[in-house]
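hey so i finally got around to running the thing on that chain from the lab meeting. sorry it took forever, my laptop kept dying and i had to restart like 3 times. anyway pasting the input first so we r on the same page abt which one it is
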Amino acid sequence: MQATIPLETMTVPDKLRALECIWDDLCRTEEVIPSPEWHGDVLQEREQRIQAGEAKFVELDEAKRRVWDLVK
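ok and heres what got predicted. didnt touch it at all, straight out
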């Protein structure tokens, strides 16, 4: 099945909302989505940074706000 999305007429916020909808849908079937091998490497590196106390975190709402601010 091929879906057609009018990207040329969509605003950036509309495109981001569409991406969020697609990600939400994909998250409901994550067990059938293969994970690339390099994902494991990135996760291991991040875990090491957490253990070493070098990682910095922000709340998800704050991260989303920062992204929205960049695209306005």
